Amino acid sequence: MPEGHTVHRLAAEHQRMFGGRVVGAVSPQGRFAEGAAAVDGQVLEGADAHGKHLLLRLADERSVHVHLGIYGKYVFGGLPAPEPVGVVRLRLTGEAHHADLRGPNVCELLEPGGVKLLRDRLGPDPLRADGDPGRAWRRISRTRTPIAVLLMDQSVVAGPGNIYRAEVLFRQGVDPRLPGRRLSAERWGAIWDDLAVLMAEGVRAGRIDTVRPEHTPEAMGRPPRVDGHGGEVYVYRRAGQPCLVCGGVVRTVEVASRNLFWCPVCQPPGRG
DNA sequence: GCGGAATGAACAT
DNA sequence: TGTTCCTTCCGCA
After folding, report:
1. Which residues form the FPG-type domain (predicted)?
2. N or C: which end of chain A has fewer CB within 10 A?
3. What are the domain boundaries of chain A?
């Protein structure tokens, strides 16, 4: 689940449960013991997300930086918090809630200024009000790298992952292998706008749904279906199945060690 | 019960 | 390009 929309939800949840309040912090697993000790007893001033990075600002101007990677997961609950189940890297407790973090790629304490360094190496985030698509365009329009690779590069665009990249390219009818510099500025604008809409909906719903109403199984007279990842999508993990729009066969290929999915009919070679 | 895959990215080579 | 981190879940015995 951890694409950018998930992390923005997590930030909102932290803000709601812990924002402006003193928090307790422990690391039952032990791998964040020193950091937890430094956090424990401080006021959590605010929670924020940039792309897939969660940032918890503390009263002493340091920040907890969490990146979930593929496996990382949060579970929230009330108080009293039960005995931690499994390997809990960080448990926060507030006035009425607790949050358990397991399996993150990153869980570290950043010194003041560390957040700026982090954000400087990230591209614009379609979910943020300060996200500037022009910044991404300056990278995209100058490279031969395929657009499908660029969309996964967090220094180009921060937030989209493997599902959103496949789905937005399908929805905009773009050939995934099209070099960035062959993409038109108009098409990039459409991709950015679509990402903003899709991901905002993902934040609201807590799942990734990308299928337009006229293409849902119901509208097409097929039995309703929800994918294993918890949403309704056009091409992601649907290799070998018929395209929901044209009936052609959805294809997959490995790109930079990730599986890319697309419909060669709706996204013909050179289209961009 | 086991093996593989998974919504990610840093690092080594 | 390959390795590693680290956890969960699914399909297959």
Report:
1. 234-268
2. N
3. 4-120, 133-262
The most confident of the ranges A32-36, A38-42, A103-107, A244-248 is A38-42
Which architecture, in CATH terms, is A133-262?
Answer: Orthogonal Bundle (1.10)
pLDDT band with cut points at 50, 70 and 90 for residue A85: confident
Please give the CATH number for the structural domain made up of A4-120: 3.20.190.10
Beta carbons within 10 angstroms of residue A85's beta carbon = 10
The predicted pLDDT at position A1 comes to: 54
Residue A223 has pLDDT above 70, yes or no: no
CA–CA separation, A229 vs A254, rounded Å?
A: 19
Q: Please indicate whether residue A258 is annotated as part of the active site.
A: yes
- Going by pLDDT thresholds of 50, 70 and 90, the confidence category of residue A66 is very high
Which residues surround strand C, with CB < 7 Å?
A 29, 31, 69-71, 73, 86-87, 89, 102-103, 105, 228, 256-257
- Name, in order, each residue with C-beta under 8 angstroms of A70's C-beta and a sequence gap of 6 or more: A2, A105
Residue type at A203 in one-letter notation:
V
Q: Report the half-sphere exposure of A79 (CA within 13 A, side-chain side).
A: 12
Nearest to residue A107, comparing CAs of A54, A57, A48, A153? Answer: A54
Q: What value does the mean pLDDT take over residues A90-113?
A: 92
Q: A204, A242, A258, A269: which is the annotated catalytic residue?
A: A258
Q: What are phi and psi of A224, to 5 degrees?
A: -60, 150
A150 pLDDT tier (thresholds 50, 70, 90) = very high
